[in-house]
Amino acid sequence: MRKKNTRNTKGRIISAAWKLFYEQGYDDTTVDDIIYESGTSKGSFYHYFEGKDALLSSLSYLFDEKYEELMGEMDPEMDSFEKLMFLNRELFAMIENQVSLDLLARLFSSQLITKGERHLLDHNRTYYKSLRQIIAQGQQRGELRQDMTVNEIAKLYALCERGIMYDWCICNGDYSIRQYAASVMPAFMAQVRAKG
């Protein structure tokens, strides 16, 4: 039970922070704003984070929460390729509507220069676990290629998603990431479909 409360406290801080970052901007959001919005304490905040900058890498936590929600919404009978495209479409809709371009760019930048954890590459994240589950099921059903490992297909998928997000950042968000991904992700990932 304690672990769930710990996760809830940390999750509330992260959710409040990213909501405020989106609404007020990163620079105009203070630690006190985050504490107030999350309904937590200064001690709780500093137990999990050294400061506001430490929250930048926590965007992957929000992505994982979204994946947990989406995994519960998916029709289990849906084709595995369509499941992957559904996850991508919904994640990018969330990014487009709830994550500012500046913050996504800061996340990528923090992951490039960090000497510590690279959250985006953590294969224990819900993101990777969900991908592996869908891909393994797709291979069992004969929907996805079996001459590639589950991890190879998951890496290709993640690489494509990160590439699109990175491009969206360097293009200053001058297109809809959701619409662009809806056309290019299926093309990128078509090579993992089983032939026949």
Structure description:
The chain has 196 residues and is mostly helical. It has two domains: 1-49, Arc Repressor Mutant, subunit A; 55-192, Tetracycline Repressor, domain 2 (Orthogonal Bundle), CATH 1.10.357.10. The protein has nine helices and no strands. Helix 1 crosses helix 2 and helix 8 (150-170) packs antiparallel against helix 9 (177-189). The mean pLDDT is 85.
Gist?
The chain has 196 residues and is mainly α. It has helices spanning 2-24, 31-38, 42-48, 59-73, 80-98, 101-113, 126-140, 150-170, 177-189. It has nine helices and no strands.
Give the tags.
single chain; 196 residues; mainly alpha; Arc Repressor Mutant, subunit A; Tetracycline Repressor, domain 2; 2 domains; elongated
Contiguous low-pLDDT stretches (5 residues minimum) are: none
Specify the overall morphology. elongated
State the share of residues found in helices, binned by percent.
55-70%
Provide the number of structural domains: 2
The CATH superfamily of the largest domain is identified as: Tetracycline Repressor, domain 2
Please give the largest β-sheet.
none
Structural class: mainly alpha
What's the CATH class label of the largest domain? Mainly Alpha
Which SSEs are present, and which pair or pack?
Blueprint lengths: L1 H23 L6 H8 L3 H7 L10 H15 L6 H19 L2 H13 L12 H15 L9 H21 L6 H13 L7
Helix pairs in contact: 1-2, 4-5, 5-7, 5-9, 6-8, 7-8, 8-9
